[in-house]
Design goal:
It contains 8 helices and 8 strands. It is of the alpha/beta class. The strands form 2 sheets. Strands 1-8-7-4-5-6 form a 6-stranded mixed beta sheet. It has a two-stranded antiparallel sheet with strand order 2-3. The relative contact order is 0.22.
């Protein structure tokens, strides 16, 4: 029986003690390569392959838990604040992937104000191939500039959205955790983070910094960039 894969944070950056060929090989990630052919759907139900998202360009890809999760909602609300001009200047795509029916994409975008790219992996094939965790370890939202609601009010709002939704479902597996990936062009991984719990998201400014995009400050605290 294979050993259980532990959630990891992986960063790959330029080193001066290796050749460009060795560095290119080091950036290759077999999990991403195996996920490349997996199907995704956009808000219209049109099908794409996961590899289409980063074949020709570096992409920041955020995997959210489910569209009813209030933490995911508030995180995506902040993603919506990233100017498209910042991404265009760095030649980087910003993509959110959920794991619900594609029919939930448009209501979620309307709710969050998110107008960058978004797709769904309804069968969670990509989530599984990338080793994104199911279940969660204990964690805290303390210090996150993206979580504005407390647990009680956030959960109540999520339940209310589920009840009032035209299609009553969880809009994804509630036990599924998300993650963040910076990849491309091709199957070259610059950064990979697998969330341990619903609060374990990467600060957006850090993701922008890792991808070479001008950063955006969120929250009231002084900006801190992880290096």
């Amino acid at each position: 029986m294979a050993a259980e894969r532990s959630p990891v944070i992986q960063q790959i950056g330029r080193r001066t003690d290796v050749s460009s060929v060795d560095l290119w090989d080091a950036m290759y990630h077999p999990d991403v390569a195996s996920a490349a052919p997996c199907p995704l759907r956009d808000q219209y139900g049109k099908t794409f392959e996961f590899g289409d998202l980063y074949r020709d360009k570096k992409s920041i890809i955020i995997f959210v838990r489910n569209f009813l999760c209030y933490i995911c909602k508030e995180y995506v609300e902040d993603l919506a604040k990233i100017p498209k001009s910042y991404l265009q200047a760095a030649d980087v795509r910003l993509i959110v992937i959920g794991q619900s029916s594609y029919l939930h994409i448009q209501p979620f975008c309307s709710l969050t104000g998110y107008d960058h790219e978004i797709f769904v992996d309804g069968d969670r094939e990509i989530y599984c191939k990338l080793g994104l965790k199911k279940g969660e370890s204990s964690g805290s939202s303390a210090g996150s500039p993206h979580v504005k609601s407390n647990k009680i009010t956030g959960s109540v709002k999520s339940i209310w959205r589920a009840i009032t939704s035209p299609a009553f479902d969880f809009q994804g597996d509630p036990a599924q955790q998300g993650g963040a990936l910076i990849v491309g062009p091709g199957n070259r991984v610059h950064f990979l983070h697998r969330d341990m719990n619903r609060y374990d998201h990467v600060p957006i400014s850090s993701l922008l910094h890792y991808a070479g995009v001008q950063t955006v400050h969120f929250g009231n605290k002084p900006q801190i960039i992880e290096v």
